[in-house]
Structures are given as C-alpha cells and as structure tokens.
Amino acid sequence: MEHGVYVVCDGMGGAAAGEIASSLAKDETLRAITERLKSTPLAEAADQAISQANEAIFSRSLQNEKLSGMGTTLVILVAEDRRAWIFNVGDSRCYRLRKQHLEQITLDHSLVEEQVRMGRMTSAEALRSPLRNVITRALGTQSIVTPDVFELEAEPGDLFLLCSDGLTRELPDPTIEHLLSADFSLDQLCANLINAANRAGGQDNITCLLVRAA
Length: 214
What we know:
Helix content is about 40%, strand content about 25%. The chain is an alpha+beta fold.
C-alpha cells in the first residue's frame, strides 16, 4: 500500500445540512493533511486535520440557524508503505478482508452498539431497536471531538472497505465478506455491494470505498 489518504463521510442534520457537513469534513480534512504533511508525520497530520475539520463544521453551524446541530460521521484510512492508520467518528466503518476473512476494524459510536459492547443488549435486539439511529459521537456537533485510532500492518492483498451505515444496515458481515471475496475489479466490487444493499432495502445513502494493499 502506497502513501495515500482515503475518506468516507455520512452527513446528518437534514439533507442540506448533512451534505454541507460531509462536504466540509472531506474538503477540510484532505486540505489540512496536505498542508501539514510538509512538517508533520502522516498519522499526526490526519489527527490534527480531523480536529480542524470539526472546528470548521461546528463554527459554520453556529453562523447559520438552519444548519444548527449539523454533523457527519467520518472514517479515514491513511497509509504509508505497509503501515495504515484508521480514524473514525460515528458509525461509518472500516473493514479489512484478509485471505477471504472479513474483520471489522472500527467500533461504532452509536447508542445501541455501545449497549451491545457493555452486554446490555444483544446484536439481534440492536437491529430491531428504535434507537439504532442515535449516534453518540459525530464530527461538528461539539467544539471538540476525539476520533478512535487504529494502527495496522498491511499485507499484500489486504482489502480495506470504508463505508457508511447505509451499507452495513442492509448487509450482514457474512454477505459483505462473500461479495468482497469475488474476483472482480475494485469498481465492480463496490457496485456489487451497493446493488446488494439496495436490493435488501436501500433505506439510506450508501457509500463505499475500497483500497487494496499491493
């Protein structure tokens, strides 16, 4: 895997506000990382860029009453040689497929998933819960945000999936694993995931991005 930065955002707070928040997050993050790379290590630059993007969204929401409370989820993969860092805020996810085995790297910042991790709710109950849309952490809704960070060693052939919850709400992990294990181009694999999620219900925006380690 060569040097690179890959971002998926999923806006919230109404259609227009969510689109503004996700666009700001993407643009500010990529711009800030590019600027900071001249003097800052990649992972540190990404962490600082997320804080800068959060401040930009939060400030914009205070300036316009119609945008009050807007925010976005964020999942970023930054790669340098064989090292990869995953940053996430919210319930957009990163998975790694290695030798046809799918592993979820990130942890959702959502009310039901946190209840599941604490043993207060089963995964089946979480799927049926009316609170499954409640996010406990998002970019831009507070003046400060702390992303989770995961550092990995990538192996040749590793396939990383960054996706919004529009995909994972419709497709269980075994289905995602099966679809990603097929011998298709990355573009076709993405299309297959989106088509399958739409056939399964397609209740939300579906975004996915694939990165393969060479």
